[in-house]
Amino acid sequence: MSFSATTQINGKTAIISIAGELDAASAPAFRQEIEQAAAANPEHLVLEMSELEYMASAGLRVLIFAKQKMGVNVDVYVVAAQEMVLETLEKTGFDQSVIIADRYDTAVTA
Amino acid sequence: MERIDIHPTHSSGNYRLRCGRPLPFGATLIAGGVNFSIYSSHATSCTLVLFKRHQPEPVAEILFPEEFRIGNVWSMIVFDLDYENLEYGYRMDGPVDFQQGHWFNPQKILMDPYAKIIGGRDVWGIEPDWSNAYQHRARLAFDDFDWGNDRPLEIPPEDQIIYEMHVRGFTQHPSSGVKETHRGTFAAVRDKIPYLKQLGVNAIELMPIFEFDEFENSRCHPETNELLLNYWGYSTVGFFAPKAGYAATGKYGMQVDELKSLVKDLHKNGIEVILDVVFNHTAEGNENGPYISFRGIDNKTYYMLTPEGYYFNFSGCGNTLNCNHPIVRNIVLDCLRYWVSEYHIDGFRFDLASILGRDPWGAPLANPPLLETLAFDPILAKCKLIAEAWDAGGLYQVGSFPAYGRWAEWNGKYRDDIRQFLKGDAGKVGAMAQCLQGSPDLYASAGRGPATSINFITAHDGFTLADLVSYNGKHNAANGEYNSDGSNDNESWNCGAEGWTEDPSINALRQRQIRNAIAMLMVSQGVPMLLMGDELGRSQHGNNNTYCHDNELNWLDWDLLKTNQDLFHFVSHCLHFRQAHPVLRNRYHFQNRDYVGSGYADISWHGTQAWQADWSEASRTLAFMLCGKHAKQGSVTDNYIYVAMNMYWDTQWFEVPALPASLKWHVSVNTGSPFDHFAIGVEPELEHQHGLLMRDHSVAILVGR
């Protein structure tokens, strides 16, 4: 499945929904969405991943870029990640740098 | 303004090129492309070979244009590469002359010695495709890991308690309780951090984690047909790359992130990371070994060769890295700097380090440039440098390893002396006193402090602690070498029966001996090192050289935590006791006198009678008292500590030295009692303040407060 990324800005929250396979070929498109979202100076960056089926090293690189681009004051949420993606985030320790959640709305009010 | 130094000037086929930058060596990601840089003193031409990941055949070969060579360095920028899926190697042409040491062969594809990720053995234990012309495949790594506020911890060496572990062996056993997909990996070590904290260690020393090939010299056991592997990994393929097969994410090429994440989390929990590094030889073996990298790049430079062109074998592993050649010295330095700065590694233990002090013809140097360079390097300035101060060529330098005020040593003499005292040998009381003080006999005259001595009773090489008290001889049949491998000098004692027994008195004695060993180790000045699993009574069934077993012989059985829970609690108590008492962790040697006016010497020696140690040949008892007012040279105040050791075969009454009037002795440890330890701070008072009855083969630790 090909990769797609769409960004929505709701006030101080930027939501990027990504789907398909995040690898070296699709990473630049994702990166562009992140830069666009960062330009809106959000307080929360939400990465909606329920449709993301695969993430290669290049994908992890962009996530690391997202976290560092946003800065320490922006909370990054990884929402509804599938098992493979979640496992990768755990093993590489990236889960320590972001907030992992099933749903953004419940995570943010919790 | 647009930069013009990032635009191509040359082309080759579809590839656009530019003359590269010689530094840094290796493959470096730059804007728009990758900078490749490699050097050879004797090659006449060099070709970059590019692969798409996992493909057996190259996608391109680009000969370095002659104008891209500066000195002996070829460097080239290749633009627009899919660097995520890139694997690369080199072909080198040059002279072929065995006696001169030249092995150039342009048919061979060679791995970059500076490769930061190495593919080809992505998942542990999967039989490689031997027909593939390029086995160990260089890849690019990224330096984007978010370290937050982390950096190496710089724990004072004398405050360290080291735990030597094998990454795979620690959690591969199904009983480890970690996720199945994590077993045997860096991720699983991370899962076990709470265990390490509970145990009380503050440094882990990882047996080799540089990329190695577990299938190097793999073979089948001549009788059982079991597959035997290069399990320990003391044979380096690449010095800059973490072992992919130790990462749960190795198959995705994310091992760099996984290892960094482990280091960061360990640091967050106050635990340092020491790497066991092997610079004495490489995986290319002897004259019959494979071309992996150095052999085809610059054989004559990287290896010590006899005048006839054969490999010197000071390592016992086929070849010897030419460590004091300036080129090799630099790559070792580059390597260590990389691990400290990029992975935040806290220290290194150098396997067969005496080889690093030999000149290119094998003779020991008085002032080895490599050891000196490492000792004075600004990036390595705060990291621990620990030498295994001997080699397989007969050089034994415990006590005399060139130290430059920096190098610590695995104290092999400590190991042997304490083992002999422990099993009740005569004539060992004096040697034991040295062990307890951080071996001033070896180090004090050279101005080297107690932390120079890495104290250990067991290590991966040799018996486990449980086997040390259960076997008189080695039992190595499983290694397939008819019990001819492994050391014969074990200084072990089986306590009355060889191996497993139902005899309750023998088993009780073994339990005491294990506890005695741990107690002695933890009250010795210096840096204690514990072998993985000794806290749980792990056995290797008398095998003292389990280098080739990827099975339960080496995997830690976590069910022992239930069956040997008492032992775990005892060991953990001793470690925490050491951490609670600075008087056990002095930076400088004792002076054997009272220099703070407490009325007591910093250390005093006793025996069955207070103030009268029995130093005679027949003696098997020793006791000592540490004055808490002398802790850390009197800069902090600690309790008084008294330790009595009865390695005699009978119960004996030990008279205990009197404390200042307001203080009383309390019992922290008594391995001869059914209640072998009491929690720190709530120890019961010693029943008779003037002495205690010590059963045979037992150790007691008292606290005066």
From TrEMBL, chain A:
Family: Belongs to the anti-sigma-factor antagonist family.
Organism expressing this protein natively: Pegethrix bostrychoides GSE-TBD4-15B
Molecular function GO terms recorded: anti-sigma factor antagonist activity
Span of domain STAS: 3-110
Name of the protein in its database record: Anti-sigma factor antagonist
InterPro entries with a match to the protein in the record: Anti-sigma_ant (IPR003658), STAS_dom (IPR002645), STAS_dom_sf (IPR036513)
PANTHER family: ANTI-SIGMA FACTOR ANTAGONIST, ANTI-SIGMA FACTOR ANTAGONIST TM_1081-RELATED-RELATED
NCBIfam families referenced in this protein's UniProt entry, alphabetically: ant_ant_sig
Cleaved signal peptide residues: none
CDD domains reported for this sequence: STAS_anti-anti-sigma_factors
TrEMBL record, chain B:
Family statement: Belongs to the glycosyl hydrolase 13 family.
Pfam families referenced in this protein's UniProt entry, alphabetically: Alpha-amylase (PF00128), CBM_48 (PF02922), ISOA1-3_C (PF21156)
GO annotation (BP), single: glycogen catabolic process
Keywords, comma-separated and alphabetical: Glycosidase, Hydrolase, Transit peptide
Organism of provenance: Pegethrix bostrychoides GSE-TBD4-15B
GO MF, one example: isoamylase activity
Domain Glycosyl hydrolase family 13 catalytic: 164-578
Keyword NADP part of the UniProt annotation: no
Classification via CDD domains: AmyAc_Glg_debranch (cd11326), E_set_GDE_N (cd11234)
Protein name: Glycogen debranching protein GlgX
Keyword Cytoplasm appears in the UniProt entry: no
